[in-house]
Prior knowledge:
The complex is a heterodimer. Chain A has helices spanning about 1-10, 30, 40-60, 80-85, 100-105, 145-160, and strands at about 20-25, 65-70, 90, 125, 135-140, 175. The longest helix of chain A has 19 residues, at about 40-60. In chain A, about 35% of the residues are buried. Chain A is about 35% helix and about 15% strand. Chain A contains 6 helices and 6 strands. Chain A has a 3-stranded antiparallel β-sheet with strand order 3-4-5, with helices on one face. In chain A, strands 1-2 form a two-stranded parallel ribbon. Chain A is an alpha+beta fold. Chain B is elongated, with a radius of gyration of 30 Å. In chain B, helix 3 runs parallel beside helix 4 (about 130-140). By secondary structure, chain B is an alpha+beta fold. In chain B, the strands form 3 sheets. A two-stranded antiparallel sheet of chain B has the order 1-2. Chain B has a two-stranded antiparallel ribbon with strand order 3-4. In chain B, strands 6-7 form a two-stranded antiparallel ribbon. The interface between A and B is large, with 84 and 80 residues. Strand 5 (about 135-140) of chain A pairs antiparallel with strand 6 (about 235-240) of chain B, so a sheet runs across the interface.
Amino acid sequence: MKERIDFMVQYEIEAHPGPRIILGIDEFAAITQWRVTKGSPQERMKVQLLADLHLLSQQAAATGIILISSVQRASAGEMDGDYRANLEDTWLFRVRNKSTSGAILGPTEELPADPTRQLARGECIYSHPGEPDRVVRVFLCDAAKDDLAKLEAARIAWAERPEIDDEDDVVVPLRAAE
Amino acid sequence: MIILWKWWRRFREQKPQLDKAAEQKKEQRECRRRIRVARAAFSVVSNVREQPARTTLVGCFRGKRAFYADVEESNKNARYHPDLDVLHRHLCDYPALGCLRVRWAEHVIRIIVTHRAVSGRIVDLQEADSSIVRLYVASLTAGVIEDGCAPLADLASSDLANNLVEYRLPKLTLLETIYERMQSFYEHLLGGQAVLSPGTAPGSVRFQALAQFEDAIELRSEDLTALRLKPELVAIGIDRITRELVTVDFSRCFHQLLAGASRSGKTTIVNLILWQLLLKPKTFCAILGTLKESAFQSSKTIRGSPLPGPLRMSLASFAVSCPLR
């Protein structure tokens, strides 16, 4: 991130022209609830990691670094409030009780669907700043290992494809999530 | 004297409340009495009547009331069983099922449903005043079939009459709290968003959301064009109501928070985003930190494959990065 900021300062630009970096952290609570001995190197590592993540959540968006954090309950014990406040887009899946959903997206009555009862598996409420909340049925990503060779071949074929002037509309079937 | 006067004054002030409480108790006693009378009537009918020929015992109401299903003449008359008519009338007489009556009514309905399911007979309870009764019966008559699954909207009540199905209500008791929990179940059923099918265990039923039967979703050409022209767009899913494609524009750099219970689909979205990034290596790099390696096995096998520069570097660190291991 520092390299990117220095680059942006050097060229006096507001957005980094390089590729976006997606940092996905699955089960963020595993980091915050990591049991370490007091004064041990692991504790210092944990504190440093959380501080870095907090810094990333504050400043990384401008440099093209995007955080994706998943958590089961966005309570204070699982995710720091400041870190949580910097995550603007929210995908709320089915939760156990209303208090959990209330801590994430506010009162249940104001949501388009009750996340405790009216969301099936694979359905979520998408909250984007400045837009009304939507109930989204997520695509199922079931790429199996056998598909990797096909994907690789398709990627090579795509890179070596001839240039076509008129592009035909293609309908891509996608399986819906369960 | 003053004390007596104060006591009398306090009594006068509290008298309306006491009268109101007394009236409520009286109503409750009357309700209990009606239930007792009804139970006694049913038990008398059942005790007097012996099991007729060519019938089978299908249910027992609190150990006193036995139900017999006529197998051979089941489909001839929708209201063949006279006792069911009694139950029907009694349920229809209820203006509303209160907390005290709900459990009893649930027992009655369970017996009716069991009897009807085994004998293939339909009892029309749609005229009942109670919303709970209507809700039960509406869902039960909506779409239970013997073999396979079918959408509820395509089924009629007559489909039930020709099939023998075993059905058990999801809950043995129907308190108000449980009813609230089950409301989404019924909303799915009545809305045609789910199907019921006979379960593997005898007397059970399987509830499946209709989304599982949507094999393919055709995306609109303009959405695909937008996805093709703007590599920062990542398709996530489809709006449940408007059926529009929902995308995330990563060029605007919004951090994402995924929240939800276990097995609700959080990892699916992470996998989905990562797999879409594989097709756009010049636009994105990806780093994944997780403890659940099993959820990302497919991504792990790409490690070392001849992919372009930035993506290959990032994929080399797939399923690592987290210092906890």
